[in-house]
Amino acid sequence: MKVLNFGSLNLDYVYDVPHFVRAGETLASTRLSTFCGGKGLNQSIAFARAGAQTVHAGNVGKEGGMLLDALREAGVQTSLVSVHDDVASGHAIIQNNADGENCILLYGGANMCVSEEQIDRVLADFGKGDLLMLQNEINCLPAIVSRAHERGMTVVLNPSPFNERIYELDMACVDYLIVNETEGEAISGKSEPDAIIETLLSTYPDMHVVLTLGKNGACYADKDSRAFHPILPAAVVDTTAAGDTFTGYFFCELMQGSTPYEALRMASAASSLAVSRKGASVSIPCREDVCAMLSTYTDKE
After folding, report:
1. Is this prediction's pTM over 0.85?
2. Helices in the chain by DSSP H: which ranges?
């Protein structure tokens, strides 16, 4: 099984601030750092560092060479990334406050240049048994989902950042949905975790749901089974890529034959390591580090 991640590629401009900028306020940043990011790039690197054969598809501007370099250095194939001369790469302006929390302003740029022709070209060499990873930072998601489903691919959707475009998707074509509580409520209309899961599974009986619960851990559910794992303790430095790290590791583990509980455990450890490091893609740990962390941790299923 191969992983095709059709997703965003961003340059992240990260500003350290004492608190998030308020309306009408001018605030001095104590530091500016530039990282490679975007949910697509982060998740591709997480998949690759977890051990999956990963291909990234997407778009960058002519200044996006460092984004391609970051993917290649992590072992991600980049032959399906198109370079545009007439539009800038996507980028994000990220504020990190003193508590390690962040807020993010996105500019789509080249990420919003997906075309019908590109979709067909990208999907041509993928089919049944291959996994398609999607987020909500590129355009043409409905066409990508439906065509991948027609080809028999396993479609995984992380509908983040959530907006009204998600309602345009045929969710019956989504095999795995990974959401936080806010995203789960927006799709299901329910606010309690159990109600979110039950509503999604009653509406889409063949769907597999992964619900992340912040400090309360994460759970998995399908029509036949449930699994839960708490978060692992960590000194929080920067939460920017924690969710993307969790996503890549969780689905890599499932692909390799792990149970949902085992996948939750591995993903929880990986995300705990990620939040203890600064930056987005650079904070994503390698598999050896995650396994070393888990060797010192015991829990009960």
Report:
1. yes
2. 39-50, 65-73, 116-123, 141-150, 181-188, 193-203, 242-255, 260-275, 287-294
Q: Give the C-alpha separation, 173 to 127, whole Å.
A: 14
Q: In sequence order, what are the beta bridge partners of 82?
A: 59
- Note the pLDDT of residue 279: 73
* Integer Cα distance of 125 and 175 in angstroms: 20
Question: Can you give the pLDDT at residue 53?
Answer: 97
What are the φ and ψ backbone dihedral angles of 204, each rounded to 5 degrees? Answer: -125, 85
252, 50 contact by CB (below 8 A): yes
Q: What residues of the chain score a pLDDT lower than 70?
A: 299-301
Strands 77-84 and 54-61: parallel
Of 265, 259, 57, 266, which Cα lies nearest the Cα of 153? 57
Ramachandran quadrant class, 72 (left: phi over 0; alpha: psi -120 to 50; beta: rest): alpha
Quickly count: other Cβ atoms within 10 Å of residue 119's Cβ: 18
* Closest C-alpha among 4, 18, 83, 47 to residue 281: 47
Cβ–Cβ < 8 Å for 42, 22: no
> 37 phi and psi, to 5 degrees?
-160, -150
Neighbours of 171 (CB within 10 A): 17
- The whole-number pLDDT of residue 57 equals 98
**Residue 301's pLDDT is what?**
46
- Tens-digit pLDDT profile for residues 9-66: 999 888 999 999 999 999 999 999 888 989 999 999 999 999 999 999 999 999 999 9
Q: Please give the structure tokens belonging to residue 24.
A: 């009408």
Structure tokens at 25: 């306020």
